[in-house]
Amino acid sequence: xxxxxxxxxxxxxxxxxQWLKAEGQPAYRLGQVLDWVYREFVESxxxxxxxxxxxxxxxxEAYGMYRPREVGRLRSHDGASEKFLFALEDGEQIxxxxxxxxxxxxxxxxxxxxxxxxxxxxxxxxxxxGRNLKAKxxxxxxxxxxxxxxxxxxxxxxGMGEPLLNxxxxxxxxxxxxxxxxxxxxxxxITVSTAGVTPAIAExxxxxxxxxxxxxLNSPYDAQRSQLMPINRKHPLAxxxxxxxxYAAITGRRLVLEYVLLGGTNxxxxxxxxxxxxxxxxxALVNLIELNPVAGCGFRxxxxxxxxxxxxxxxxxxxxxxQRFRRGRDITAxxxxxxxxxxxxxxxxxxRPSAVTERTPRxx
Length: 364
What we know:
This protein is of the alpha/beta class. The protein has helices at residues 13-22, 28-38, 53-62, 123-126, 135-149, 167-178, 198-205, 222-228, 231-234, 237-251, 269-282, 304-316, and strands at 69-75, 81-87, 93-101, 104-108, 112-114, 129-132, 154-157, 190-194, 212-216, 256-261, 285-290, 321-324. It is elongated, with a radius of gyration of 21 Å. The strands form two sheets. The protein has a ten-stranded mixed beta sheet with strand order 1-2-3-4-7-8-9-10-11-12, with helices on one face. The chain folds into two domains: 8-62, DNA polymerase, domain 1 (Orthogonal Bundle), CATH 1.10.150; 69-331, Alpha-Beta Barrel (TIM Barrel), CATH 3.20.20.70.
């Protein structure tokens, strides 16, 4: 079979300029092509109407232009969230979310089809793992959402999958997103969330584009964290926190500790004090997330009193705290609810089911 051409989204401006020069094109053609791809978000080279027809044909021969196929869209009742379901070339499906916060918009994008980590409170892991996404599939979500909703203020890799288990595609995607000549979204407006893959945190710290890093903490205790998040058995908390501390020192980025509050499980005042100790050492912000409904996970959301007390302890310990509100819950677009299918769809037969493990211990 003939080799698939490199996708235009994966080509930096210098390489594209060299190609255009070799084609005998004037220098200003570069800006025109970049505008069509990254400002107009066109879906074909044929749509680049200010380019000569022969050049459009040559671009189509030399490069691919991938766009995921939209197969569903759900909008929240408050209008502040919209979830997109995309089908990929091999039939895998992924979800991406557009969110609006008073005019500041965020794209939440996926890095894998499904997830192999099987965190016990997350629907994505329960749905099983498909495969890593390619860089063009990651970036294709951004172009599709931008075409539908306009350019984002920020990007978060908090959709389906563990980004640091797919650095081969995530790193070039970050380079394209942060490049002023391409998507032009600065690294300070991009956040990568991880469950804690120690060597990959160190690798990301020395990449050309170093985004904000958010660690999904969820327990300050190794034993409990291993039950909630099986990846902790391979990458224990001490090593993960050390890698995060190094990341902050190398990049100058402030860390975020994401903490999903599971009622009666990880919400005790002592757990809050121990989270505060970690946050102070890392100079990190703590983002509290009340558990969103996930069928069959065995956990309940925290009571209002649990959330209030946990936040109070953190604040009185000198830790900056934010709280992620339940935006998008009504369309299963909130944290931990993405599955790569909309509610009316059956589970994909391609996904490998996640393993079932033992019951989660309580605080401390």
